[in-house]
Specification:
about 240 residues; mainly alpha; about 65% helix
């Protein structure tokens, strides 16, 4: 395979991995505190939430890619993956809010800002004492939607570049497994970088740690990309490519 094609594959893997890491940092993840309505976000971890989102995005991307034989549109397939992941995250946050509002009886408010940056609604007076917010407030919801779109686009970009006959030429199953593996590796690194809960782009933790997270994602994705190129050049996957 010519060096230009190999370089394109490597660059797309790096970009996809970094977009996946960015998407994780944008999600409103609450973990165990959110399960007790003492923190904002969805009551699960970064990796679990983003893995579900990534799988939804990959399913959507694979469905769209099936309309092409061996040369799927990289942009359209990537966008379809982003939209699929965004919808999954959006429905998850919506159901979480229904449980918080009608089940727990709390108002979705941010514990990180006194006024919602998007809607300009006050937050502090609606927050339960001794909590850091609860539910998925408007600003966190918007951040999560952008995170789903960003992460899904990145995961689908890796998938389609590995699937396309113009580039890596992997089988659909192999491309999906490799793309999901690279995505989860970056999601785990992002989860360690976040270290607990995060509300989204307005959270001080996002501004403090996003550079470190993207740097780690670059390194991890670069290493994964090099392994993929070695596999392509050596034909290590044999008949499954």
């Amino acid at each position: 395979m010519d060096p230009i094609t190999l370089l394109i594959i490597l660059v797309c893997i790096i970009i996809g991995g970094m977009l996946g890491s960015l998407g994780v940092h944008l999600l409103p993840v609450g973990g165990a505190p959110a399960a007790m309505a003492t923190a904002t976000g969805i009551a699960t971890g970064c990796v679990m939430l983003m893995t579900g989102s990534a799988m939804t995005g990959l399913f959507t991307a694979s469905t769209v890619a099936a309309f092409w034989d061996s040369n799927p549109s990289v942009l359209l397939v990537s966008l379809s993956g982003g939209v699929g992941a965004m919808l999954m995250i959006g429905f998850s946050m919506f159901i979480a809010n229904l449980l918080y509002i009608f089940g727990v009886g709390v108002v979705p408010v941010s514990g990180q800002v006194a006024v919602d940056p998007i809607t300009k609604e006050p937050q502090t007076e609606y927050m339960t004492p001794r909590t850091s917010g609860h539910g998925v407030p408007s600003v966190a919801y918007y951040s999560g939607m952008v995170g789903g779109l960003t992460g899904g686009f990145g995961g689908a970009l890796i998938y389609v570049i590995l699937l396309s006959g113009e580039y890596a030429g992997f089988s659909a199953a192999t491309a999906a497994i490799v793309a999901l593996g690279i995505f989860i590796a970056n999601a785990i690194m992002a989860a360690y970088n976040i270290g607990g809960t995060i509300e989204g782009f307005h959270d001080p933790k996002f501004k403090e740690r996003i550079v470190t997270g993207l740097t780690c994602a670059f390194i991890v994705s670069l290493m994964c990309g090099i392994l993929v190129l070695i596999t392509i050049e050596t034909g290590a996957l044999g008949g499954v490519m």
